[in-house]
Amino acid sequence: MKALVYHDPGRRSWEEVPKPELRDPTDAIIRVDAVTICGTDLRILKGDVPEVEPGRILGHEAVGTVEQVGAAVSGLKPGDRVLASCISACGRCLYCRTGVYGQCQGGGGWILGHTVDGVQAEYARIPFADTSTHVLPDGVANDAAVMLADILPTSYEVGVLNGQVKPGDTVVIVGAGPIGLAAIQTAQFYSPSHIVAVDVAASRLDAAKQFGADITVNAADDVAAAVAELTAGAGADTAIEAVGVPESFELCTRLVRPGGRVANVGVHGKPATLHLEELWIRNVTITTGLVDTVTTPRLLRMLAAGRLDAERFITHRFGLSEMDEAYDVFAHPADSGALKVVLFS
Questions:
Q1: Which family is this protein grouped under (predicted)?
Q2: How far is 66 from 28, CA to CA, in rounded Å?
Q3: Whole-number pLDDT of residue 334
Q4: Which of 60, 153, 182, 190 could make an S-S bridge to 86, C-beta 3.0–4.6 Å?
Q5: What span, in angstroms and rounded, lies between the C-alpha atoms of 5 and 34?
Q6: 112, β-bridge pairs
Q7: What percent of the chain has pLDDT over 70?
Q8: How many CB atoms lie within 10 A of CB 134?
Q9: What does the DSSP 8-state code read for residue 128?
């Protein structure tokens, strides 16, 4: 079969590799029907995730059809159409038993495309299949469902829920890429009074308006002054960092009001300065997190009911064999206008 293989920072290839086999009785093998590329995959290719070893098949977001199941898998059967979650959960450890699947101590957590081979391939092995997949209801399209593998639950859980967005709040989202747009979309579940999107790209600020931001500010402008004017000098109730660079995190800490919350979602490859000399007196709460995907069933119900528009994230569609072209398009959004790309078998 063919798969997208990471070799070293800056080196990837769509190449022939062995088809995966069942290793553990809790495994399933899926034929990949739809897969997407994540900003974290680009971070890996930049060398920001050194745990990823050369030879690793990348990818952690897919929809597929079950081909084989291990002897211990009871909730799936061949032919089932499933969402493969970006987080694998053993279902037995301390963290899994409290719904904190991202911190699984039983061999799960973020492993696909990270510490085990991922899903940017024609076939994939899914560990802990019963607790790491979701059978898709009829009528839910593959391309919409694959948006629930990572970006929507990530933005919802690590951004909106950690940020404790409430009715009437002013929410500032720094970064209007796919994660930021998903935070804009899911923040609206809680009826904030204002959603402010901040980015350097005019095209992404336009997308933020389409996704529900009522105010957009170019990051090159005086963002703090704009937020202060909007909030009578108080600052944002919640600032969500959706980029993963020091400047955006530090901007969030300047935008939030005393007693407010900074929810960091972005994947950082460099240290950011924490200005405790300013923050210590302001009662600011800072949260970080890896998604647990505990909200995926809720989002899937909303998708099936027509209450969540996930397809709107997709700007480009490719065949699976066009993986290299899809990576190039996704990696250069300023030129391509890409938000999310989806590849189909």
A1: Belongs to the zinc-containing alcohol dehydrogenase family.
A2: 7
A3: 86
A4: 60
A5: 17
A6: 116
A7: 100
A8: 20
A9: S
Which element (helix H / strand E) includes 71?
none
pLDDT tens digit sequence for 250-308: 999 999 999 999 999 998 888 999 999 999 999 999 999 999 999 999 999 999 999 99
- Residue 57, phi then psi, degrees to nearest 5: -75, 125
Structure confidence at residue 269 (pLDDT): 84
The sign one gets for the Cα dihedral 187, 312, 336, 45 is positive
**H or E element, residue 125:** strand 123-126
- pTM score, two decimals? 0.95
Dig out the tokens for 273 from the structure. Answer: 């300065």
- Domain 2-150+292-344 fold is Quinone Oxidoreductase; Chain A, domain 1 (3.90.180)
Residue recorded with tokens 């995966």? 20
pLDDT, one tens digit per residue, over 63-120 is: 999 999 999 999 999 999 999 999 999 999 999 999 999 999 999 999 999 999 999 9
Listed by start position, the domains of the chain span 2-150+292-344, 153-287
Q: Does residue 85 contact residue 38 with C-beta atoms inside 8 Å?
A: no
Q: What is the CATH number of domain 153-287?
A: 3.40.50.720
- Tokens 């929810």 appear where? 263
Is there a contact between 255 and 230 (Cβ–Cβ < 8 Å)? no
Overall average pLDDT of the 120-133 stretch: 98
C-beta contacts of 326-330 below 8 A and 24+ residues apart: 326/37, 327/4, 327/12, 327/37, 327/41, 330/37, 330/42
Rg (CA), the chain: 20
Q: Give the Cα separation of 231 and 5 in Å (integer).
A: 48
The two tokens of residue 287 are 């949260």
Binning pLDDT at 50, 70 and 90, where does residue 177 land? very high
Q: Which residues pair with 14 in a beta bridge?
A: 4
CA distance 7 to 95: 32
- In the numeric block, which tokens belong to residue 163? 């940020």
- Pick from 264, 257, 254: nearest CA to 286: 264
